[in-house]
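Revision sheet: C-alpha cells.
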Amino acid sequence: MSDKPAVSSKPTGKNSTNSAAKSVTKSSPKRPATAKPRSRKRKTARKRLRVLILMHEDLVPPENISALSESEFHRIKTECDILAALQKLGHDARPLGVRDAVLPIRHAIEQWQPDIVFNLLDEFQGEAIYDQHVVAYLELLRAPYTGNNPRGLVLARDKALSKKVAMYHRIRVPKFFVVRRDRRVRRPKRLDFPLIVKSLVEESSMGISKASIVRDDDALAARVRFMHERVGTDAIIEEFIPGREIYVGVLGNERLIALPPRELIVDSIELGEDLIATESLKHNIHYQEKHGVRIKGANNLPEGVAQALEHNSKRIYRMLSLEGYARIDYRLSNDGQLYFLEANPNPELANYEEFASAAAKASISYENLIQRILNLGLRR
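Predicted:
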C-alpha cells in the first residue's frame, strides 16, 4: 500500500461588496450604497498532520493488498483501514513495523518528527503486558500518541485488578480467583460450577474455547494447566454468568462519550449451549460465516439497563484511568443483572467492526472517529 496521502486543497472564502454607489440624475433621490451581507459560513481547513503508525512488523500492509487472500487481508484489516482513513483525511501517514526494539521508534521520531504517533501495538517482544512500556517510552520522548496511557493499560490489562477496583466502587462483577503459573488450583468453597477459565492478561479471547467452561474440579485443573503451559500466562477463574454478552465503547479523556451498546449474536447456537466469545468466534472468518456470528445493537434490554450501561461504562473508564478510547465488556444475566467482565484498552478499530459500528450508530463516521482519536491524543 502506498504511503502517499491524498492532497487536500484549502477552501477559499469569497466576500464581495459593492465598491461604489450607482450614479443618479438630479431628479432622482440619492440612495446610499449597500453592501451584500457577509457569509458567516466558513470552511475550516483541517491541519495536515504527520502521523507515525506503530504496528507489529508482521502487520505492515504490503504495497499491493489486492494480491492478498481473504484471510490474509482480514489479518491486517485494522492497519489497512486506519492507514486509508488517515490518507483520506489528508494526513501524511507512515507505518512503522515494530517487534522487539524501541530504537527504530526513536529514530523515526527524531528523523521524521511526526505530530503524533498512532499506537496500534497491543504487545511488545511477544508479551501482552509489555505494551505499556512502549507507551511510557513515547512519553519519555515527549511524543504525543493515541490511545491509553501506561497507567490505564496496567489497570485494565489485569482482569483481576480491574475487577477489584470495580468492586471497591460497588460495581457488580462475577466471583473470581487467580491461579499463578506453576501453582496448584485451590478452588474457594464460595465458587460453584460452572466456571470459566481465561488468561489473566491476554486480550482478544486468546486461549478461550468451549472447553474453557468447566463443570468439575478435574476439568478445572486441566484447563488451568492449558492456560499456564500453552498460553503462558496466569489464569483467572470466574463464575460463569449465562446470558447475553454486551460491549460498550467509550471515547474521551475528560469529557466522555459512551457509544450505543453492541451485542454478540450467534445464529446457529444450539439449544442449551452456552454463549461465549471464543477465539475462533472472534477471529476465524469462516467460522463466523458458518455460524452466523455478528455484532449488532443491543435491543430489548430490561428496564434501566441501557442507562446503567452508559453510567457504569463511564465510571469504569474513569476509575481505571483510561484515555482516548476503550471498550467495556459485560454479561447481562438471564435474570437481568449486569456484570462487569473486563475493560479492553486496545479494542478493534477496523472499519465496520464493533467499535466503529457503534460510533456509526452515534452518527460518527469512520474517518471522523479516527480524527477524534487523533485529537484526543493531541489534547492529552
